[in-house]
Every structure is written in C-alpha cells, then in structure tokens.
Amino acid sequence: MFNSTVIKRAITRSRFQSIRLNSTVKLTKDSYPNVARANYAKLTDEHIAKFQEILSSNQLITDKDELLNYNEDWMKKYRGESQLLLKPKTTEEVSEIIKYASEQNLAVVPQGGNTGLVGGSVPVFDEIILSLAGLNKFRSFDSTSGILKVDSGVILENADNFLKEQGYIFPLDLGAKGSCHVGGVVATNAGGLRLLRYGSLHGSVLGLEVVLPNGEIVSSINALRKDNTGYDLKQLFIGSEGTLGVITGVSILCPPRPKSFNVAFLGVESYDKVKETFVKAKAELGEILSAFELMDHNSQVLTKNHLKTSHPLEEEHPFYILIETSGSNNTHDMEKLEAFLENAFESETISDGVIAQDETQIKTLWNWRESIPESSQIGGGVYKYDVSIPLDDLYELTNAARERLIEADLLGEGKPVIDAVGYGHVGDGNLHLNVAVRHYDKAVEKCLEPFVYEWVSGKNGSISAEHGLGFQKKNYIGYSKSEAEIKLIKQLKGLYDPKAILNPYKYV
Ligand SMILES: O=C(O)CC[C@@H](O)C(=O)O
Ligand SMILES: [Zn+2]
C-alpha cells in the first residue's frame, strides 16, 4: 500500500555514493566564444563626472572588489571587467544615464539580481553595469482585479510575500526567488516551477515601463486585461534579455492564492512511466495539478551530497517525480491526490512515494528539487543546457550527453566531469541538463557544444526553454530560429538600438 501518512526518514545507511573532488574551478576566458571588443567609447573621468551629476555618490561604484560581484555571474563562469557600476533609484535616473551613454557611445549591461544562467547579465568587456536593485518600490495593488504594479528591481519573493497578505500569489515561482528581480524575470521570460498552472509571463504581464536605448521612457504600464489597439509592443521586451530596452516598471495580473497546497514525492522505474504518470495526473487531478517535476537518480545523488540529509524515499529509483496540487479545499485536494496515487501505485506506474503532511515537509520535499542547481555546482563548475523537447524524447538527451562524455573519456573519477544529470519541468516539456565539472574545460565544452544544440534541433526542440540565450548561446540561435527570423530580430535590434549600446556581445 502507498504510505501517505508520514514522510519516511528511515535511511540509516545510504547507498547514494559520495563524490570525490580533486580540484577547484578556475575561471578562464578560454571558454568564451571568440569575440572582440567592439568600437565603444572607453570610460573616462569626464564620463564619471557626468554620472556623478545624475546620481549621488553612493549610487556609483568604481571599487574593484565591490565590482567583482556584479562583474561575475552566479556560476562563476563568466566575468567581465567593468570599471563602473551605476545604481539608479528612479526611472528618470535610468533615462538620464542611458541618454548620456547613448550620446557618448558607451556600452551598458542592465543587471537585475544577477541570477541568470547563460552569462546574459554580466559584462563581457568593460560595459557599464546598470543595476536595477535601487528601483525597488511597490507602486500599487488593486485588490479587486489582482493587478500589481512594481518597480523592476523588487525582489520576486518580496513581491510574493506582499501578495500573500492580500490573498494573492505571484504567477511565477523559482528557486532564485530570494535574489532575482521582477524586472529580471520579465526580461528573461523566466518559466519557473508553476508555469503548468499559471502560464508564461507573456500572458500575465499586462504592461511595462521601459527606457529605450536613446533614453526615452515608454510606458504601457496599464492595468488592462484587454487592449487590441495595434501591436502589443511590450511582448517584445519580455524575454529580450536587456537588448532592446531597460525595464523599469512592471504591471502583472496575479491570481488568488490557493488555500491548500499538497506535495508528493514519488519513485518511478522508467521514463515511460514518468510520462504515464503525467498523463494520469492531468486526467485525475485536473485543475488542482500545479507542478509536475522530474528528477533523475543522479541528480539526487548530487543533491544528497550537497544537503547531507536523508532522502525522502528509502529505496533508490531511476527517476523521481514531485507533484504539487493547489486548490481551495484541503480535504478535497488530499482525497484526490491520495486516490490518484493509490491508482498509480496499484497499476505499478509508480513504485514508491510519500506525501508531505505539513508546510515544513512540503518545503523539505521541494528542497530536494530546488537544490539540484546548487548541488550541480559541487565541483565548482557546471555546464547547463535548458531545452524544450517534445515529451517522448525529453529525458533521452541526458543519456546521449552522458554516453558522449564517457566515450570521450571525460566523465568519472579523476576526469573533468563528475556527472551529467537531467531534471526539469516535465509539465512544460522543459529539461535541464546539468553537467557538473571539477573545472571548466575546453574539451568538455567541445564535446557538448554544438552536439546538444544539434540534438535538440533534430527533435524540433528549442535550445532555450527558459534561461535565454545570453552569452553562452550567442552563436547558436540558428539551431532554433530560421534565417528569416534571425534577420527580423537583427532588424528590430537595429530599430530599437541603432548604436547597439544595450547588452552587447550577447545573442543579437
Ligand atoms: O540550473 C538549472 O539548470 C535550472 C535552474 C532552474 O531553471 C530550475 O528549474 O531549477
Ligand atoms: Zn527551470
């Protein structure tokens, strides 16, 4: 029988192996695609003096050590050499900065919480870093419609905590919620853990305030659900990765906060059974299904090494699934979830599982999923691939990558690669392939790129499901977009940013 009463914590002797590390990662520019600094102006004292007129002294940073956190990305994979960080507090300040940068031909990289995973939010050379962290005011909340208007630098978790008090929820949730900004998630069109329930930001963002590359402020920050007056220009900025304008304000439609959340963590014997469970979950849980996350065995090995606590399931399995339901009546939701799991267990679709009994256990179970990215950094470095693939072949890429790394003698004890793990948002057809490494290594990168992109393209997938292209995939857009589409993208960039001062060296 399926045990739904407690989270089992009976693991005394873990069979999850521990991982031996033998070196730390050193950041080198060798792994960068071949790019040369473009013909932007070099920063001078005169430029700095002008920025000092726009901002007060504590909003302008030139100290090398302080700049490091902004020059380098979270994975410590990409590092620029900016000599200036600007921290405006208002849209007008952003506008003045950008206007002057444009006049002077100075390149600028907009930066939110710097939690991006494709090197999109850090400079490549000496671009000025424009942090939006100082734009952190809540503008308004309409409790009748659920429409929230905030500055772009508001931290996602703060926005959600605010909404919680009003009985609403932010329609996006992700592991980096404690640091990422609302504007950043919009600029990258982040997907997160509940896209299955709330859809993409292209649907929930109602309006944006944006500073264009010439400094002009364009505001469509309205509170209208319907507006069919010509082109919906805001859509272009959603997912543009800071290449068309700087988002300074966001208006977003927030749904009522569910009153009951339940989470089950399941063990499954094959990827075919994962798919079968997904079909059944959609049919039997219906509207209360809010997340369906896949984790492979090796991802849990890394996570166990990182968390150093007992795994929720006693037995090991090739795959694990986290299912979340959310609704308005806990008795109803729990009965439905238990009935679904009972059926899945009887028909041997799933082999094992636990249901969280309270909020702490819900957090514990989510932690085994949300900690995978951090756990993949165990050796200090990680190659990440974030792809959309039709569900039939979704997991297969992980095996293909692992086999290729083994054939090339790059994976194993004493080799650069610790392991290749696959996990992700099955409900959205989105796989995360993380290749954990002991050090960044040209041979590993050559083994995986463009192999992964070719493989995905061969399955009619997308080489970026949610993290964007950034710097990592700057040369690979052709695997997901046609020549005609790329031409249009370049034309749009030329129209919005003729001097190409915003976030250069990235995908466009
Ligand atoms: O780090 C990754 O590869 C995935 C990060 C994030 O999109 C997630 O789903 O946890
Ligand atoms: Zn994800």
UniProtKB/TrEMBL annotation:
Cofactor(s) required for function per UniProt: FAD
Protein keywords: FAD, Flavoprotein, Oxidoreductase
InterPro entries reported in the protein's UniProt record: FAD-bd_oxidored_4_C, FAD-bd_PCMH, FAD-bd_PCMH-like_sf, FAD-bd_PCMH_sub1, FAD-bd_PCMH_sub2, FAD-linked_Oxase-like_C, FAD-oxidored/transferase_4, Oxid_FAD_bind_N
Any one GO MF annotation of this record: D-lactate dehydrogenase (cytochrome) activity
Domain FAD-binding PCMH-type as annotated: residue spans: 78-257
Pfam families reported in the protein's UniProt record: FAD-oxidase_C, FAD_binding_4
Record carries keyword Nucleotidyltransferase: no
PROSITE patterns referenced in this protein's UniProt entry, alphabetically: FAD_PCMH
GO biological process per UniProt: lactate metabolic process
GO cellular component: mitochondrion
Swiss-Prot/TrEMBL catalytic activity: (R)-lactate + 2 Fe(III)-[cytochrome c] = 2 Fe(II)-[cytochrome c] + pyruvate + 2 H(+)
PANTHER family listed in its UniProt record: D-2-HYDROXYGLUTARATE DEHYDROGENASE, MITOCHONDRIAL
Family (UniProt): Belongs to the FAD-binding oxidoreductase/transferase type 4 family.
Protein name per UniProt: D-lactate ferricytochrome C oxidoreductase
Originating organism: Wickerhamomyces pijperi (Yeast)
